[in-house]
Amino acid sequence: MPANGNDRVEIDLGLVEELTNKETAALDAKHRRSLEYREVAKTHLPGGVSSSWQTWPPHPIYVDRGKGSKVWDIDGNEYVDYHNGYGVMVMGHAHPKIVEAVQKRVELGTHFAQPTEDALVCAENLAERFRLPYWRFGNSGTEATMDACRIMRATTGRTKLLKIEGTYHGHHDSLMVSVFPSKDAAGPRDHPASVPQTLGMPEGIVEQVVNVPFNDADAVRRAFEEHPGEFAGMIIEPAMSNCGLVLPDPGYLQQVEDICHANGALLAFDEVKTGCTLAWGGAVEAFGVVPDLVCLAKAIGGGLPCGAIGGTEEALGMIIRGELDQVGTFNGNPLTMAAMKVNLTEVLTKDAYRRFDEVNGIFERCQTVIDKYRLPASVKLLGAKGSIDWRSTPIHEYRDLWEIDDRVPQLAWLWQLNRGVFKSPGSKWESWSSSIVHGDEDVQRYVDNFEELASAIAS
Ligand SMILES: Cc1ncc(COP(=O)(O)O)c(C=O)c1O
Question: Within this chain, do residues 302 and 411 fall inside the same structural domain, yes or no?
Answer without folding.
Answer: no
